[in-house]
Amino acid sequence: MHGFMCERVLLVCSSKRRKGGGPRLSMTSYPEKLCSSPGVIQLRTLVANLLIVVIYGATFGLFWTTAIQTVTLYPVAQSYSWQIVPLANNGGSDNFEITSWHSGHNMRGWIEFDVSSIPQNAWIMSATLRLRLWQKTTNGSELGDPTGRLYGVYALTEPWQDEGINWINQPSWTDYHSATSPVPPGQGGWYGPLLWMNWDITDMVKDWQSGVANYGVVVKDTQENASLLYSTQFFTIHQTPNQTYYPRLIVTYLYPEEIYGIIIIIIVETGLISMLLMRARRASKR
Q1: 122 lies in the same domain as 223
Q2: How far is it between the farthest Cα atoms of the chain?
Q3: Are residues 219 and 268 in the same domain?
Q4: What is the pLDDT of residue 272?
Q5: DSSP, residue by residue, 246-286
Q6: Band of the pLDDT at 48, cuts 50, 70, 90?
Q7: 96 shares a domain with 58
Q8: Which of 148-162, 194-208, 244-258 has the lowest mean pLDDT?
Q9: Same domain, 20 and 154
Q10: What is the rounded CA–CA span in Å between residue 250 and residue 131?
């Protein structure tokens, strides 16, 4: 074989006969047309495409497993307070309640995460705040089901302590890069089912990474003072059995150096693959 040519050396019978009367055998080089048939060409193309997919797939798989990192952070402080009991502090409670109701019955909660473990030079791809739902109100004479209500998450601009914060001394916050999410349907509970509420706070975490002071966030109903009592309780880091109950901040990031490296690898691979394909095409035309 030479290149992609299926040239075979075959024994063929010559039309001339030997002096003994039998046919004379001779060695003849015979390029088979079978190798240039449409079916073989399609097979070669399929194999080449599969090889390309395998090479690029392996490259991106290696990149994903080595360059992209995901960390799960748990709160360093958490508390909530009720407007109608303005001096009460609920730091250390096993629940975290968000409520909207008229006549000063609103409830807000505060959470803080330490994000210093995220490298300064990393590119943050996503950051999701997750709270595991415990229970919520259902429809009644003065109660409403909060399913679908929007809860907002806002960056705090002042420090606070989970064992000292209350409605009166609560820190201020900003709307900049805030996030909202609808309350999901269903009920949670101590023994399940697992029901989470999620907020995309990627831009907020990027702000903290860039040097904006990180004092955590406040969680509240975006439409407080409702005519019915809408309330949702979440689990906290306090008095819960294990981390499966904990609020969490899940951050996915990568290093820019890894991006540059993968670009160089892909360029080199593309060049090599193109060169091999060109050589294959030339060989098949011989």
Answers
A1: yes
A2: 123
A3: no
A4: 72
A5: S-EEEEEEE-HHHHHHHHHHHHHHHHHHHHHHHHHHHHHT-
A6: low
A7: no
A8: 244-258
A9: no
A10: 11
> What's the domain range around 54?
38-68+256-286
Do 100 and 187 lie in a common domain?
yes
pLDDT at 80 over 60: yes
- In terms of pLDDT, which residue wins out, 58 or 203? 203
Dihedral over Cα of 166, 242, 148, 227: its sign: negative
Among the listed residues 200, 56, 80, the one whose alpha carbon sits nearest the alpha carbon of residue 134: 80
- Residue 224 burial (CB count, 10 A): 18
Element (H, E) at 99: strand 95-100
| Cβ neighbour number for residue 19 with a 10 Å cutoff | 6
Looking at residue 63, its pLDDT comes to: 55
CA distance 167 to 234: 19
Distance CA 149, CA 280 (A): 62
- For the four alpha carbons of 14, 18, 23 and 26, in that order, the dihedral sign comes to negative
Please tell me which of 20-34, 50-64, 230-244, 250-264 the model is most confident about, judged by mean pLDDT: 230-244
- How far is CA 110 from each of CA 180, 198, 241, rounded to the nearest angstrom? 15, 15, 21
Same domain, 149 and 268: no
Number of folded domains in the chain? 3
Mean pLDDT is lowest, of 50-54, 82-86, 103-107, 136-140, for 50-54
Q: Are residues 228 and 172 in the same domain?
A: yes
Q: Do 88 and 154 belong to one domain?
A: yes
DSSP code at position 224: -
What pLDDT score was predicted for residue 10?
38
Structure tokens at 269: 């691979």
Helix (H), strand (E) at residue 38: helix 38-67
Query: Please, what sign has the CA dihedral across residues 77, 83, 87, 93?
Result: negative
